[in-house]
């Protein structure tokens, strides 16, 4: 995947890119199956649900990573940085 110019790759950007590619591939397969298009909405809903699940898991893992980093630096995750003197 290429990084959009000027933008970081956040979870929403990654999800949109992956979901678009998967749905495009599914639509291509369904177009070659007789009456395949009648199942398009079901496939799209299933992919959307799976992507929701993956994104929630990734966000949870990123939250855990933030907590671990706070423990390493001696700060709690929800605690602001101490003022610099």
Provide a descriptive summary of the structure in words.
This protein is mainly alpha-helical. The protein has a domain at 11-61. It is built from two helices and no strands. Helix 1 runs antiparallel to helix 2 (40-73).
Please give a quick description of this structure:
By secondary structure, the chain is mostly helical. It contains two helices and no strands.
Write the layout of secondary structure elements.
Elements: H1 11-32, H2 40-73
Helix pairs in contact: 1-2
Global shape: elongated
Strand content: under 5%
Low-confidence stretches: 1-7
Helical content stands at 55-70%
Q: Which radius of gyration do the C-alpha atoms yield?
A: 20 Å
Count of helical regions: 2
Q: Provide mean pLDDT, rounded.
A: 79
Structural features:
2 helices, mainly alpha, disordered N terminus, 85 residues
């Amino acid at each position: 995947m290429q990084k959009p110019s000027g933008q970081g790759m956040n979870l929403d950007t990654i999800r949109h890119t992956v979901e678009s590619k998967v749905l495009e591939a599914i639509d291509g397969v369904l177009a070659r199956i007789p009456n395949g298009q009648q199942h398009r909405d079901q496939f799209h809903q299933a992919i959307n649900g799976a992507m929701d699940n993956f994104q929630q898991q990734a966000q949870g893992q990123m939250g855990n990573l933030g907590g671990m980093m706070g423990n390493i630096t001696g700060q709690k995750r929800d605690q602001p940085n101490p003022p610099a003197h």
